[in-house]
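Review form for a predicted model. The reviewer records the input and the model, then writes brief findings.
Reviewer: anonymous (R2)
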Amino acid sequence: MDNSQGSGGLKASLGGLFGGGAPEYSNTELAGVPLTGMSPLSPYLNVDPRYLTQDADEFIQLTGTSKTRGRFELAFFTIGGSCMTGAAFGALNGLRMGFKETRDMAWSKPRNVQILNMVTRQGASWANTLGSVALLYSVFGVVLEKARGEEDAINTITAGTLTGMLFKSAGGLKGVARGGLAGLALSGAYTLYNAWDQITGTSSPRPY
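Model under review:
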């Protein structure tokens, strides 16, 4: 058996092993194949690889829907984040107060229990306070968004002002005025922060 017959038998065995014979290309077809492999168009797949690059978001956006989350979707994050922030701040404040009130006591179990009670009491109090404020702000924001049919800075400032007024309504007219001014100042600062990039022209506006 000569070498040509041996190579032919080897090709046939490999073709039978992988389910078919090896493809054969003419010299004309092979001449059009670039040696560097940098061509943007594959001669075998006939697909431009640039179309396979996903520069956009990898989710399907329904027609007519907004690309940003509305107030109702953000309400859960706002309320939960406010509660956790209040709990953490209250715990640190309670720890500080506990050490301050028990500084004349020796390290013992009663002192540890007193500090722990202060931490849990302050943490729960601050979590309840910030959670209530976030709940009122979210409710006012959702109502304003549904009533006006749009989402903008007016809803943010109005919701913040109404939240401050209602939260301090137990203090009478002075409390309502102070709460409204505080809510107006905080919501105005938050709106200015969100729109700062848009004002300076550096990027697109953030969702309120």
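Findings: Residues 53 and 152 are 34 Å apart (CA to CA).
Further findings: Residues 1-6, 10-21 have pLDDT under 50 and may be disordered.
Recommendation: see findings above.
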